[in-house]
Design goal:
The chain is mostly helical. Helix content is about 65%, strand content about 0%. It is built from 16 helices and no strands. Helix 7 (about 110-120) packs parallel to helix 10 (about 145-155) and helix 9 packs antiparallel against helix 10 (about 145-155). The termini are far apart.
Amino acid sequence: MSNELNNIKEELQNIQDPEKAKIVSKFFKTGKGQYGEGDIFLGIRVPDQRKTAKKYSHIPLDDIDQLLKSNFHEYRLTSLLILVLKYKKEDFDGKKEIVDFYLSHTKNINNWDLVDSSAPNILGDFLLDKDKSVLYRLARSNNLWERRTAILSTFAFIKKNKFEDALNIAEFLLFDKHDLIHKAVGWMLREIGKRDERTEEDFLEQHYRKMPRTMLRYSIEKFDNDKRNFYLRK
């Protein structure tokens, strides 16, 4: 274990808050049978983790690997925040190495905040002008977090007004059984609508009657009352 890796762990341990850890453990559903079952929290605020990540954004992938394999949620999130910062500084070959690393560690990117803070900024960004078949593979995964990675990665495309893959993956995930996928798909549809309401409505007109209620509510959140009520009267 490198000295800097030890320093990161020590700094995070020094700012842990056991009382906050109890609260966030409930928020992230760590109970038996829940989506975050067994996850362990130290109770560290995200802004503090961002400060640590910025301070250590130069550490090598081997150190990031060790953090990302930790049982502590905040170690994993901090490692991903570092990875995002590292990715932004790299040339093409360096970015590709980080993307390959990211895809080989999806089993450790195993809660919604971990996915949401990294997937668009690493995988989505890299695939903007490349073959996106890996996202369709992830969308078919039995792993909840890989499916969320697939749809959240398209946020990078949506920001560039490229909606096709987001809509395709949203359609594929339409009948997903997990609430966290319903929320993620609805969120991406809403983001499309903020940029091109007609495109979102074209999708909704085809699918709103069969969409899970949570997905629908998330997707129409920014519509005016009359339009929201129209879609909710399915």
